[in-house]
Structures are given as structure tokens and as C-alpha cells.
From TrEMBL:
GO terms for cellular component: cytosol. This is Triosephosphate isomerase. The active site is at residues 98, 170. Transmembrane segments: none annotated. It is an enzyme of class 5 (isomerase). It is found in: Cytoplasm. The gene is tpiA. Involved in the gluconeogenesis. Catalyzes stereospecifically the conversion of dihydroxyacetone phosphate (DHAP) to D-glyceraldehyde-3-phosphate (G3P). InterPro entries: Aldolase_TIM, TIM_sf, TrioseP_Isoase_bac/euk, Triosephosphate_isomerase, Triosephosphate_isomerase_AS. The keyword Cytoplasm applies. Substrate binds at residues 13-15, 176, 216, 237-238. Belongs to the triosephosphate isomerase family. It comes from Massiliimalia timonensis.
């Protein structure tokens, strides 16, 4: 991390876990553990937990995010939630383009771009996910694939709007598998993403861009990962569901 140039952000992605009572209990346990964090702390929770999370985190340093949003403001899109609905609630962050959305729900680079622009327009901070499959890495096309995903996702996003975007590099082969990219592999791809931002915008925009690592970061490997110069925090899955584990990751980012 380089905190002199950009923010370090640890964001928890709860995925489809926790009912309201469980969510309140987890946040209650988490609050005192991260109260002194010197990095930004975000929890992205299921839609049904948003109001619970907003109430439980009021007055704290923990920000609340959603796990997805639609690209239209309103209309006949049964089961979807708009970005404006989220901001009206008080939600500040939203995850866009997570690999599970791409893999299971037909998300494409084009729809990721549409959702990203809609979220920015609504005033949300976007955690934009990019990353390669194991086959892509084995075929040596990680750099090309991640660059393409980044370029398409940020199409027509201005340099000013870019300030509302965090990029999360999540190698798909390391999500929920227990496998983790080495610290050097994670840093290498985060640096590639930063170079793409420099090409699209300029070096100042690239230097200011927070780029997280999102592939099975946990309490044991967080310190090594965030010590890398181009890894500015993490998008945390399983470890975000345990207050103690998540707080260890926050502490690693705070001390880094």
C-alpha cells in the first residue's frame, strides 16, 4: 500500500449470508474491534440486511454497501434494485461485476459498464471487480483479460467520476477455494490494472486509484498481501463473516 497517494480500503462481501438478527450480532461484535482503524472499513451485505446494517453502524467508522444494483432507474425489472433506491436508504458503496455475478447470473463486461455508470450517477462508490479464470492464467492471458475488463467497465467514465471507483482484482480461481494468489502475483496484476488506468486517464489518476485484492484474503495472509506496493486493501469474502478475522485484516491494512 501507499497511503500517501491513495486510501486503503477493507471491504467485506457477505454474499448470501446472515439473517437480520445474525447481521446485527456480527456488526455489534465488529464495531469495537475496528473503531480505531486507519483504513476505510466497508461491509457489503444482502439487500435484506441493508436497513439493519445502516442502523447498527450509525455513528461509527463502518460504511455500508450493497452487493449489486441494476442499471435502470426504475421499471419492469422484477427482482432488481436500482442505484437510486440504495442511495435513498443511505447506502454508500456497491459491488459491481463480482465474478459470481458474471459466472452464475449472466453479467457481462457491457452490463458491468452500465451498472457502474448508473451507480456513479446515483452518487455511490463502486467496488468494481475484475479477474481471470484459472484457464486464462494457465494460457498466459491474465494481463490482456484484466486490461480488457477494466477498459470496458470504465468506458465513458470521466476522470472526475473515477474518484468514485475502487477496483478489486479477484482471480476467479482463488475465490472461495482456499487458494490465494501469492503476494507477488497479486501485486503484479494490481500493477497491471494501475498501468491501464494511467493509459486511459493519466498517472495521477492511476496513483490515486485504490486497487484491492479479492481472492481468499484472510487473517493469516492479509499482512503479506497489503505489504505489496500496489495492493491497497482487500475485498473479503469468508473472513468477513467472522468479526475477529475481519478485524485482523483491518488491522493489517491500518498498520501497513
Amino acid at each position: 500500500m501507499n497511503k500517501t497517494l491513495r486510501k486503503a480500503v477493507i471491504a467485506g462481501n457477505w454474499k448470501m449470508n446472515k439473517n437480520r438478527a445474525e447481521a446485527k450480532a456480527l456488526i455489534t461484535d465488529l464495531k469495537p474491534l475496528v473503531a480505531d482503524a486507519s483504513c476505510d472499513v466497508v461491509i457489503c451485505v444482502p439487500y435484506t440486511n441493508l436497513e439493519t446494517a445502516l442502523a447498527a453502524t450509525e455513528g461509527t467508522n463502518i460504511k455500508v454497501g450493497a452487493e449489486n444494483c441494476h442499471f435502470e432507474k426504475s421499471g419492469a425489472f422484477t427482482g432488481e434494485i436500482s442505484a437510486d433506491m440504495l442511495t435513498e436508504m443511505g447506502v454508500e458503496y456497491v459491488i459491481i461485476g463480482h465474478s459470481e455475478r458474471r459466472q452464475y447470473f449472466g453479467e457481462t463486461d457491457v452490463t458491468v459498464n452500465k451498472r457502474t455508470k448508473a451507480a456513479i450517477a446515483a452518487g455511490l462508490n463502486v467496488i468494481l471487480c475484475v479477474g481471470e479464470m484459472l484457464e486464462d492464467r494457465e494460457n498466459g492471458i491474465t494481463a490482456e483479460l484484466v486490461a480488457m475488463q477494466t477498459k470496458i467497465a470504465l468506458k465513458d467514465v470521466s476522470k472526475e467520476e473515477l474518484k468514485q471507483v475502487i477496483i478489486a482484482y479477484e482471480p476467479v480461481w482463488a475465490i472461495g477455494t482456499g487458494k490465494t494468489a501469492t503476494a507477488e502475483q497479486a501485486n503484479e496484476v494490481c500493477a497491471i490494472i494501475r498501468s491501464v488506468i494511467a493509459q486511459m486517464y493519466d498517472q495521477a489518476a492511476a496513483d490515486a486509484m485504490t486497487i484491492q485484492y479479492g481472492g481468499s484474503m484472510n487473517a493469516k495472509n492479509a499482512e503479506e498481501l497489503v505489504a505489496q506496493p500496489d495492493v491497497d486493501g482487500g475485498l473479503i469474502g469468508g473472513a468477513a463473516l467472522k468479526a475477529e478475522d475481519f478485524s485482523v485484516i483491518v488491522k493489517a491494512a491500518s498498520n501497513g
